Amino acid sequence: MAETAELILDGKSITLPVIEGTEHEKAFDIGKLRDQTGYVTLDSGYKNTGATKSAITFLDGEEGILRYRGYPIEQLAEKSSFLEVAYLLIYGALPTKAELDNFSGQITKHTLVHEDMRKIFDGFPSATHPMAILSSLICALTGFYPQSVSPDLGPEEMELNIIRLLAKMPTIAAWTYKNNMGHPLNYPRNDMDYCANFLYMMFSFPTEKYEINPVVVSALNKLLILHADHEQNCSTSTVRLVGSANASLYGSVSAGINALWGPLHGGANQEVIEMLEAIEKDGGDTSKFIAKAKDKNDSFRLMGFGHRVYKNFDPRAKIIKVAADEVLQALGMQDSPLLKIAQELEQAALTDQYFIERKLYPNVDFYSGIIYKALGIPTEMFTVMFALGRLPGWIAQWKEMRENKEPIGRPRQIYTGELERDYTTIDAR
Ligand code: CMC
Question: Of 129, 227, 230, 307, which one is the catalytic site residue?
Fold first, then answer.
């Protein structure tokens, strides 16, 4: 007999179906609860709410497990390429050689952006954060491809939108940086692979030859893979929610970019480096900052620590920590003072009762910023790098939501405001 849960309300029993996932996660289906009882559930921050069924990413926060379409993140980070992982997330299976060649070839064909896009850059004040420019320009793609906003996209049109977005995002991302620096914008190089081309557009100048460093390419590939999806996190839920209103892929991803920008989410990688630099500037005393993080009267948090879901360790952080050591070694930067401060901070926090009791461990952002810095990526661009990595996940989740014809997302609330009262004219208030 199928498992059910019983809810007793005012002496009346209500039976709730139990839904079980393939990894045996269980949920009560409360879809009919309001109709049956007049009650809704309240779950601020969605800590216990399954917003959807999804076959893309499995995450077990207690065990520190992360798998894309069943494949462990550790294996993908070691053996795969970013585009292969993108294909896996979006289409559900690892590609054959022919499929991957075709996918990469399609992406390569679409790397250029419309020349009018360059003019949009001119309108942004020079202090504009790259994430603001990125989200604006991704949304602006709807202007260049107006058919992309149709709610009735056929599979071929959907495919083309996906390819365009994967192809153009690195170009737009690199240009946000070049534009802010006042450097000439580099056109993509289609003889290079995805990561190498991005680095070329970021760092080359028309005046000199740009040498691609394979250590840097390989580190970037790994970082993008580790960020590629993370089930129903804040930005992904945003992409699905916006998309559930039948908004376009570009509009939905643009909204996700804004969610990711928040310092409690993807913006944390920028904050980590800024925090490490502040500690260094202050004389390097990590205990002072640990004390600040523990002080409930101080809003300071140890950036790069803690996670809503991982309560033992973040498997991505484990991989990134090893990668950071390798990259710094390979680039001769193993004595970096920021790395030393990061290591001290990690040690201090991992042995401190406050952090132990609350299960606060380094998360993916703690070490990613150190690698980005070693690769020469400017701090302001860190969250853009996260967005570049998360893009296949957003696309896969948007596509799944569309293909499953999920209803528009529309949460309920518990109203706590004024009871009905009559309007008074301004002179009577
Ligand atoms: N430093 C100090 N105290 C912390 C921290 C921290 N980084 N994180 C959580 N706490 C404390 C918090 O004050 C609370 O203490 P108490 O129980 O005494 O009130 C307790 O730990 C639980 O925290 P919470 O805010 O209820 O936990 P949450 O699940 O709502 O928040 C989080 C998760 C990631 C937003 C939070 O840990 C945080 O702000 N971390 C720093 C920002 C960060 O690194 N974000 C990147 C997350 S990983 C990348 C991504 O996927 O977005």
Answer: 307
Q: What is the pLDDT of residue 70?
A: 98
Q: Which domains does the chain have, with CATH numbers?
A: 4-50 (2.20.28), 72-410 (1.10.580.10)
On whether the CB atoms of residues 403 and 258 are closer than 8 A, the answer is: no
Residues of the chain with pLDDT under 70: none
pLDDT tens across 78-94, in order? 999 999 999 999 999 99
pLDDT of residue 139: 98
- What is the 61 CA–ligand 1 centroid distance (Å)? 14
- Choosing from 24, 365, 422, 427, the catalytic residue is 365
Q: Where are the alpha helices (DSSP H) in 60-187?
A: 73-79, 82-91, 97-109, 116-122, 130-144, 155-181
At 362 the three-state DSSP class reads strand
Nearest CA, atom 17, ligand 1: 358
Closest CA to 380 of 125, 130, 122: 130
Do the Cβ atoms of 174 and 201 come closer than 8 Å?
A: yes
Angstrom distance (rounded) from CA 341 to CA 260:
26
Predicted pLDDT of residue 2? 87
Q: How many angstroms separate the CA atoms of 347 and 343, rounded?
A: 6
- What local confidence, expressed as pLDDT, does residue 203 receive? 95
pTM (predicted TM-score) = 0.92
Query: What residues are in contact with ligand 1 under a 6 Å CB criterion?
Result: 230, 233, 264-266, 268, 293, 301-308, 358, 360, 363-365
Closest CA to 350 of 312, 400, 321: 312
404-425 as b/e, with b when 16 or more CB fall inside 10 Å? eeeeebeeeeeeeeeeeeeeee
CA distance 102 to 172: 23
The Å distance, Cα 309 to ligand 1 centre, comes to 10
What tokens were used for 58? 């499995």
Tokens of 406: 């999920």
Q: How many CB atoms lie within 10 A of CB 129?
A: 18
The protein residue whose alpha carbon is closest to atom 4 in ligand 1 is 301
Res 379: pLDDT:
92
Q: Which of 373, 397, 395 is nearest to 385 (CA)?
A: 373
Cα 265 to averaged position of ligand 1 atoms, centre (Å): 10
Residues 337, 298: Cα–Cα separation, whole Å: 26
**Catalytic residue check, 29:** no
Ligand 1 atom at shortest distance from the alpha carbon of 366: 44
Amino acid at 27: A
